[in-house]
Design goal:
single chain
C-alpha cells in the first residue's frame, strides 16, 4: 500500500546587502507571504486503490453561482476509507485521481456574480450533493436519487478535503453563531440519520431499534430522540461504542455476541422495550443484522436499511411479508440541512461528543489510518492552518 506525501517546494530565503527595513520593504514582505499562502491548496488525493497522497492542487475560481470556500473542518467518512482500501464502492470506481472528503464546513472567501444570499466571511456547512439537471427526481423533491447528481468524493467528482474548495452556493448553508465549524461538518452524517428517521416515520412516542452504534447508528439515535422517539434500543459488538450511545441518550444497550442468532437478539430487544419496536433502523449492512432487524420489528412496522453491505443478502422476506413489515431503502438524504441546523442551534441535538480525534490537514494520512483501524468514532481534519479550533 502506497502512502505518499507530495509537497510544494518553496524558494530559499535570501539575504540582501542592505539591513535597512522601511515601510515599503515590510509591505512587500507581507504581500509576499499572503501570495504564498494563497497558492497553498494542499489536498488529500486518492490515485488508485491503496494510493493516497497529499499534494497541491490549483485554487479553483468560482463561477457565477458558486462560492470559493476556505475549508475549516472535514470529517473522514467510512466511504472515504472504503474508496482508499478498495478503489471502488459498487459501480463507482476510482479511475482518475480524486480528492476525498464530503463532511465539511468552511468560510466563504469569494462569491460568484449571481450569488445573493452569501458574502465573504460567512461560515457555512456544505451539502455535498448538487443536482446537475432539473429532472423528474429534482421536481418531485427527491434530488438525491438523480442519476446525474454531483456528489463530493464520488467518482468522478472531487471532494472537499483541501484548503480551498469551490461549491454551488445554493448548497452552502450559513451557520448560526452558536454552531461551530465541526458541528457544521457533522451535519452531513446527521442528515443521514434525519433522512432515515423520516423514511421510517419516526414520530412522538415511537419505539425504535437501531442496529449498529457506529457514526451513522449514533446520529440515527440522536435524530430519532429529537424527532420524538420515546425509547431507543441500540446494538453493537463494541462496548466502547455502546458507552458512547448511552452518553448520547440511548435508553437500552444491546451487546451483541456473534454466537447469538438473529431470533435470539430480536427477542432481547422485545424484552428490553416490553414490546416489539415499530421501527428498526439498520446501520451495519451485515446480513445477520438485517435478519435481526426484520425479526425484531413489530407486525405492520418499518425497517429502513441504511448500512451498505454485500450486493446480495439472504433475509427472511416471507416473515416480513406475512407480518406486513415494510422494508425501505435509504440513499444519502435530501432537504435536511435546514432541519439539522435548527436542531443544532436550538441545542436539541448534541453531536460534539462524536468527534474523538482531530488532525491538521498535513497529517491526513495518519488520520485516515486512525479511521481505518476503527479507533474512536469520528476523526476530524482541520484544514485552516490559522484556525485549528472546533
Amino acid at each position: 500500500m502506497v502512502l505518499n506525501v507530495i509537497t510544494r517546494t518553496t524558494g530559499k530565503r535570501t539575504q540582501g546587502a542592505s539591513v535597512r527595513i522601511d515601510n515599503t520593504y515590510c509591505k512587500f514582505r507581507v504581500r509576499q507571504r499572503h501570495s504564498q499562502m494563497d497558492k497553498d491548496n494542499l489536498s488529500v488525493v486518492l490515485h488508485s486503490k491503496g494510493d493516497l497522497r497529499l499534494e497541491q492542487r490549483p485554487i479553483p475560481e468560482p463561477g457565477p453561482n458558486d462560492v470559493l470556500l476556505q475549508m475549516h473542518s472535514v470529517g473522514i467518512c467510512g466511504s472515504d476509507v472504503h474508496y482508499w482500501q478498495n478503489g471502488r464502492i459498487g459501480d463507482f470506481v476510482v479511475k482518475e485521481p480524486m480528492i476525498l472528503g464530503h463532511e465539511a464546513s468552511g468560510r466563504v472567501v469569494k462569491v460568484g456574480s449571481a450569488v445573493k444570499h452569501l458574502t465573504a466571511g460567512d461560515r457555512v456547512a456544505i451539502e455535498p450533493g448538487v443536482p446537475r439537471e432539473i429532472d423528474e427526481f429534482f421536481k418531485s423533491g427527491h434530488y438525491n436519487l438523480s442519476p446525474s447528481i454531483f456528489f463530493c468524493a464520488t467518482p468522478p467528482d472531487d471532494g472537499n478535503l483541501c484548503r480551498y474548495y469551490k461549491h454551488n452556493a445554493n448548497f452552502c448553508y450559513k451557520l448560526p453563531d452558536n454552531v461551530t465549524y465541526e458541528e457544521g461538518a457533522l451535519i452531513e452524517p446527521l442528515s443521514v440519520g434525519i433522512h432515515a428517521c423520516r423514511r421510517a416515520g419516526v414520530s412522538l412516542g415511537s419505539m425504535v431499534f437501531v442496529c449498529g452504534a457506529g457514526p451513522i447508528g449514533l446520529v440515527s439515535l440522536l435524530a430519532a430522540k429529537a424527532m420524538g422517539a420515546s425509547q431507543v434500543v441500540i446494538s453493537d459488538l463494541s462496548s466502547d461504542r455502546l458507552a458512547m450511545a448511552k452518553e448520547l441518550g440511548a435508553d437500552f444497550l444491546l451487546s451483541v455476541r456473534k454466537e447469538e442468532t438473529p431470533q435470539e437478539l430480536a427477542k432481547k430487544v422485545e424484552e428490553m422495550l416490553g414490546c416489539m419496536p415499530q421501527i428498526t433502523i439498520e446501520c451495519t449492512g451485515v446480513q445477520s443484522s438485517i435478519q435481526t432487524a426484520i425479526y425484531g420489528t413489530r407486525s405492520g412496522g418499518v425497517v429502513v436499511l441504511v448500512g451498505l453491505g454485500g450486493e446480495m443478502a439472504t433475509v427472511p422476506l416471507l416473515n416480513a411479508a406475512i407480518r406486513e413489515v415494510d422494508i425501505r431503502g435509504v440513499f444519502r438524504y435530501c432537504n435536511t440541512w435546514p432541519m439539522a441546523i435548527a436542531m443544532l442551534a436550538s441545542k436539541k441535538v448534541n453531536v460534539k461528543p462524536l468527534v474523538t480525534h482531530r488532525f491538521p490537514l498535513e497529517q491526513a494520512l495518519e488520520a485516515f489510518d486512525t479511521t481505518r483501524q476503527g479507533l474512536g468514532v469520528k476523526v476530524m481534519l482541520k484544514c485552516d492552518k490559522n484556525d485549528q479550533k472546533p
